Amino acid sequence: MRILPTIAILAGLFVAACGSPDSGSEMGAGNGQTLTIYSSRHYDSDYALYEAFEEETGVTVEVIEADGDLLVERISAAGDRNPADVIITADAGRLWRAEQAGLFAPVSSEILEARVPESMRHPDGLWFAVSTRARIIVYAEERVDAGALTGYASLADPAFRGRVCARSSGNVYNISLLAALIDRWGADAAQQWAQGVAANFAREPLGGDSDQIRAVAAGECDVAIVNHYYFARLAGEEPAVTEGLAIYWPNAEPGVHVNISGMGVSRNAPNPELARQFLEFAVSDRAQRFFAELTNEYPAVASVTYENAVLDELGDFQADPLAATVLGENQAEAQRLFDRAGWQ
Q: CA neighbours within 13 Å on the CB side: how many for 200?
């Protein structure tokens, strides 16, 4: 397995776009023995997945990594000479952007359709979820009465004025959450919520999800909204940070907002059948356990069992069954609402 950094994606796509006769061999595409993956993910679970696929098939996996938005832009720029077989990215919003750019080819697979829930795959087979992450509320047990939390709406309650931490509104995780709330509550109520949360900020949005958790631990704020796996990772690796903190599952109907990481076959894949085989392997029991045991994500295939004491300690929750496609369809409106709300 070869992992190439962002600089390689720029060079590789430039070579491909220029039509070099050596581009196929350089990128490992077209020979039937190398699968070229373009991914915005950089987790141990993914590397284990690639190695397991190589072990299972004897195929060489070559991975080129880049930021999610950059990934879409650069593959789009390469056009028909895009050398990717498989495209992987985190968040339904980014999958939607890649879909809108015409980067995916439809895949028909009984295995994928049987194992991936309908709400977590594109209706035309353009992409399929491989893992999920829940958007939760983290709070300081000594400073917050758990009974004061009744759902995502709680974050906009004036009782939490000056007590909320969050990352920027430009973050795709927050955009997808608001996209879901638009579907749940309607645009007017969703904007009022965004305004209420912005009015409750303890500080201007900054940093990533782990930074929000650390801010609650440090007393900079009392509650924060984060993806569950950031909390699970800190609980496992730096338990002193999460000591005194608890998580609240916003289970109020229709349930906790859940986002996905997904993958699809590239529209111009040199090895489309091999790419389909990789997608099917990614939803096998063996591969699905990687996401839970190595990255603290939840498997997309609900029947898969895994061993992860930290995830077990987080408890059970009720997931919002909203189709992941809606998160992409509503993201432009969500960003507009954030901007109007003054959520920076």
A: 24
